């Protein structure tokens, strides 16, 4: 879908925003027939509660939507986006929308219209919203389009989103904005990026490394996203239940591509580079084996103690490549560990950084973008856990604790950069929520977008 707002000149119906603690006063100010209609209908102004208002000849004249209470709004983002599934098609505009909620509400409305319709057409026409007063329309539409790209990529089954198809989507994104591209594969990949090759060589769908560059001036930002298009676990085969969501194992790549779209569409004054190792982790006679020792682009050796811990291997080579240029900010995103989900659940994006000022900027960006994050530590005392003794590093230490932290420490060895930030995202909404239908979802991208001015001095 292409996010868009209704034309401001188009006739539209009002959507009255009513706070629960102001309901009686608001009803008293309405025409008696409307107040009676809402009271008899049991309208309580709960967050996202919608009641249509009657017009002449049985038409819909407008609607009331509950703003709820401060406590209910704190418990749920995008609560007013519930209106999208309750209103008839046509143009609508808000009346009484608090100014401090306008941007979140406008964005939530756009995101709530998302439907993954590649295999089945959408079952209804969504209502359109006029952009609320004071909202940066270009910013909201850029964020919404970037998120829709991320969701589409994650939701596409692996049969139609392998390394080659991810490459095609990557090149299409670059072409749209005039970005320069590079694709490394075959002997060049095997020689220059041996861990990416080792993970992907077990599949008939050849691995590759994708790179785009955009922007000629300004500070440099490099985004690295894990592009494991499907993860069987390799020879350490996952059980059937463990493969059900593995089409989303390229969620890091999808998220950095969505963020790149936002940045390029907004024309931010930076030099952007995006790197995606695109592979499939499969089972075959060519697949890497437990206890293999891999050499990396950085020169470090890695003992493979679990072929199902492949994401950090492909990211290791990609991060080493990114760090060779010493960008002013280096960020990686990956659906990396189950330990992160155990720690913070599916709704939070845990992140790691050694830079406190970047953490403060990101936390502020998360609030501005309605994109919650949570900081976890690069706990240096755990470094010894990722050192197996017969190689420099262990890709799956048997420590039994702090799995997300030890994975992040592994990646930090390859990034080797003072301004490095890593996100261990989930990339999936397990149940329908306002503006977040069940399925693929971006995490951390909007928080970063809002934080970039502080992080890069824009």
TrEMBL record:
Q: Which residues form the M17 aminopeptidase N-terminal domain?
A: 14-130
The signal peptide, as residue positions, is none
Every copy of the Cytosol aminopeptidase domain together lies at 149-448
Record-linked InterPro entries: Leucine_aapep/pepB (IPR011356), Macro_dom-like (IPR043472), Peptidase_M17_C (IPR000819), Peptidase_M17_N_1 (IPR048816)
CDD domains recorded for this chain?
Peptidase_M17
Keyword Disulfide bond attached: no
Is DNA-binding a UniProt keyword of this protein? no
The residue ranges crossing the membrane are none
Protein name listed in UniProt: Leucyl aminopeptidase family protein
